[in-house]
Amino acid sequence: MYNHGQGLRRGVLGLVLAVFASIVQASPTITDIEFSSRPGSKFEIRLDFDQIPADINAYTIEKPARIAIDFPDTSSALDSKRYSLPYGNATGVVVLQSGDRTRMVVNLVKLVPYETRVDGNSLYVVVGQEGGAGYVKQTSDPNRLATSVESVNEVRSEISDLQFQRTGDGEGRLILELTDPSVDVNVFSEGGNIKVQFVNTSVAERLMRR
Questions:
Q1: Which pTM does this prediction carry?
Q2: Could you report the per-residue pLDDT of 74-120, keeping only the tens digit for each?
Q3: 20 vs 112: CA distance, rounded Å
Q4: Domain residue ranges of the chain, discontinuous segments joined by +
Q5: For residue 41, with 0-12 CB atoms within 10 Å meaning exposed, 13-18 middle and 19 or more buried, which class applies?
Q6: Are 166 and 129 in contact (CB under 8 A)?
Q7: Which CATH architecture group holds 29-152?
Q8: Contact partners, residue 145, CB within 8 Å, separation at least 6
Q9: 172-178 and 122-127: which strand pairing?
Q10: Strand runs labelled E in 38-184
């Protein structure tokens, strides 16, 4: 005999599970990254995702020269976080995930214009010197991602205090105090060591040690 109440509960449960599955699958993941040279002094970065990438937020820094692109609600499945580049004006690329956000930083010798476009599940970032005053080339390309851009001439900050604490379970914790908490920070692993890189940040003289 068919139980109408039980059938209704199963239907509601199935709908909830379907909605939950769609939410879980809603966040894009970076699955691959490739670099290639372009005509002139340009080079291209291609990021592959498991679905169409979300809109990005980007900003540039002149000293040191950097292009930073944030991917909200995006995770990274890349095998590496740091990539060396053989191009004259580029020193490397760093891709780091923090929580539900992933950031790609392109380290340059000199800040140059760049443009982004999306094709299917891939995002292309073309970096190179072109005429014009702006850092980002604006076009009417319908495939171009919506991009929020902020240009930062120079960020000045100082590490004013440094403390090492040990937690109750024996783990070590390093606490740094910055005069400017909004400074850009990159954390990465290199040669088995954890390194922290602060953009245009000095260290208080009293904290300097050999």
A1: 0.56
A2: 999 999 999 988 887 888 999 999 888 999 999 998 899 999 999 99
A3: 43
A4: 29-152, 157-207
A5: middle
A6: no
A7: Sandwich (2.60)
A8: 53, 55, 56, 116, 117, 118, 123
A9: unpaired
A10: 43-49, 56-63, 66-71, 75-76, 82-84, 90-98, 101-108, 114-119, 122-127, 147-154, 157-166, 172-178
